[in-house]
Write a structure and sequence with these properties.
Length: 422
Amino acid sequence: MTPFRNKKRLTAQLEELQIHVKVKVKKPDTEFCDQKMDILEFMDLGCNGFMNGLTSTITSYNEIFIQNPVLSFEPGYTFLVDNIKSFTEELMAFYFELIKTRLSDEPFNLLEIAFFVRALDRFYRRLQNLSKVFTYHCFIKDGYKLIWESSLVQCSKALDLLKSKLTEDLTNARHSIISMSNNKVKEKLQLSESLMVLEKSMDEAVKRTIKSLNAFLSSDIAFLVDTNFRNDFILNVEQNVIFPFIKFIISTSMDYYRNHFTAIPLLVLFLSRLNLDLNISIILHLVTFLDECFYTNQDSSIKPFVLELKNSSKDCAQALIDHYVRLEGHNLSQMIKKSVETRDWFSSVEPRTVRSVMKRVVEDISLMDTQAAQLYEEGSRKDRSSDSSRTFSAIGTTSKSFQKSNWSSYGARLDENLFNEI
C-alpha cells in the first residue's frame, strides 16, 4: 500500500519529459527531423513540474508520517521510511536517466553554451532543495556526477568541432596551394598569406572555444561551491581539448610525411612552417591564453605537456622540411633521368650547348628557393633563374603575435656556388 496519491501525476510528468527527449517533428514536405525542446526549457519543465511536485509530496509525507511523534515509536515506522525511500529513488532513477540522455544529446554551441550551464545550475539547485527534505539518499552526489559527465561530453564535442574546422581550413589551404601560379609575382605571396590565414583562423577558433567553456566557471554557479569542479574542469580542458587538438595538428601534418612520394611538396613545406610556428610561439600562446582566461596563475612555459608538445611539433617540422627536400630532389632526379634515357647517345653528335633540361633544373631550384624564402626568410633577395634580371621581396609569414624562427636565415645560407656551378 502506498500513501502517495500524487504518484500517477509525477509519473505522467516524467513521461512528458521522456516525450521531449525522443520527440521528432515532421515539417511540411520534409522527412522527420529532430526538434527537441531548448535545454533550458527542458530543465525548467522538469524542475518546475516533476521536482517541485516530488519535493512537495515528500514534505507532506514527512509532516504526516515521519515527523509524527506518535508514529515514530510504532512498529510500522520502518515501513513508512522504506516506503518513501523506494518511492523517491524509483522516480529519481527514471528522472536522472532522462536528464542524462537529454544532456548527452545536446550539441556543443559556442553561442548557447551559457544556456546549457544555466540549465545544469538550475538542476543542481533543485537537487539541493530536494536533499533538505529527503535525507536518505544523496541525490546531490548523483547529480554532480551527471553534471561532470555532461561537461566532459561538451569538451569532447568542442574538440571535434575544432578538428572539423582545422580540416576544413587545411583543405582550403591545400586547394589554394594546388591552384597557385608561380608565374606571377603577386601570386607568389599567396603561400605565406595562406599560412597567415590558417594560423589566424586556428588561433581564433581555439580562443572562442576557451571563452565559451569558461561559462562553466561563472562565479554564480551552484555546483562550483564545496566541490573540486573548477580545478578538474580546467585540467580537463587542457588535457582533453587544447592538447589533443595540437596533437591532431601534428598528427595530420605527419600523415603527409608518411605518404612518402605521393604528397604535394609545396604543402609539405607549408605544414613544416606551421609546425615550426607551433613550436616557437603558438602552443605557448594558446596555453597562456587558457591560463589567463581561467585565472589559474600558472607558469605555462614549465608545464611538462607544453614542453612535450613543443618538442613534437619541432620534430615534425624538421621531418617535413627533410621530406620536402627529398620530394623535390626525387622530382629533379627523375626529370634528369628521363632526359638522359630518352636520348640516343650513340648516334647523337657531341653536345655544344647546355641542354634545355638543365635550364629547367635551374628554374625549378630557383622556384624552390623562392617558395622556401616565403616561409623561412625575410628581406629582398635576387631570384636565381635562367634570367637573373628579376628580383622579388620575400615576405615574412607570421603575424606580429608570433615570433620569428631561427630558421628564417636558412635560405640566406644556401650555397650560392651550387647555382654558379650549374
